């Protein structure tokens, strides 16, 4: 994975392709002489780490602090270390919206603009025409065995607002005390927050399960 990240870094440095900046935050506490990691259970997408998109004109440190506040509600988390970063190439026909944009009914800005995508939205590419791409956004009812699509948006956006590579920054924050479990409403969802022993984690959704491995094995980071 490290070799792939380095290869992507070289490609990005030689190109003018947009790179979406992302942050992932590992929050730990010590309890009974062991280290525990904070996780969140998304109601439809499984167990995750606090993470998100760096907004325009926002630095990565501020983005990490904002995501902690929004997704966990913690107010006293202290930055222990900036761990490092990795480059991620998105799967084929998958991309990110690089800035807030209208969604058009046809590949023409004079057509009906019936919806908007915010920065950082994941979409699937359908087809291209006249410097526009038709994309699809879907939300499914549950994870991992979804049965229904509960919400979807399909329309056209300008090619310049699509991004296929992201640079993910990893941060380590610590807290001295927090509840064992609590809920937090964020991004129109109710998250369940809970602690897990660092070396006995439950199943984390893909590709987030690879992030902790990358930090431990490739960046050689020690959470102790």
Describe the 3D structure:
The chain has 224 residues and is α+β, with helices and mostly antiparallel strands. The chain is built from 3 helices and 15 strands. Strands 1, 2, 3, 4, 5, 13, 14 and 15 form an 8-stranded mixed β-sheet that branches. A 5-stranded antiparallel β-sheet has the order 11-10-9-6-12, with no helix packed on it. Strands 7-8 form a two-stranded antiparallel sheet. It is elongated and about 60 Å long. The two termini are 24 Å apart.
Task: Produce a short descriptive summary.
The chain is of the alpha+beta class and 224 residues long. Helix content is 17%, strand content 48%. The two termini are 24 Å apart.
């Amino acid at each position: 994975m490290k070799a792939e990240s380095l290869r992507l870094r070289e490609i990005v440095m030689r190109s003018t392709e947009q790179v979406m900046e992302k942050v992932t935050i590992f929050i730990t506490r010590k309890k009974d002489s062991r280290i525990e990691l904070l996780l969140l259970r998304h109601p439809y997408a499984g167990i995750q780490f606090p993470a998100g998109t760096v907004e325009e004109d926002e630095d990565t440190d501020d983005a990490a602090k904002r995501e902690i506040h929004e997704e966990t509600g913690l107010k006293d988390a202290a930055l222990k270390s900036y761990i490092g970063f990795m480059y991620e190439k998105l799967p084929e026909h998958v991309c990110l919206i690089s800035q807030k944009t209208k969604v058009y009914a046809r590949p023409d800005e004079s057509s009906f603009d019936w919806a908007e995508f915010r920065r950082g939205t994941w979409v699937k590419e359908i087809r291209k025409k006249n410097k526009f791409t038709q994309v699809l956004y879907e939300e499914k009812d549950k994870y991992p065995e979804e049965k229904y699509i509960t919400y979807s948006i399909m329309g056209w956006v300008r090619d310049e607002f699509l991004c296929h590579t992201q640079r993910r920054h990893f941060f380590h924050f610590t807290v001295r005390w927090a509840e064992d479990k609590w809920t937090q409403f964020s991004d129109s969802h109710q998250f369940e927050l809970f602690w897990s022993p660092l070396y006995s984690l439950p199943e984390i959704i893909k590709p987030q399960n690879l992030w902790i491995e990358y930090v431990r094995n490739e960046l050689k980071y020690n959470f102790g």
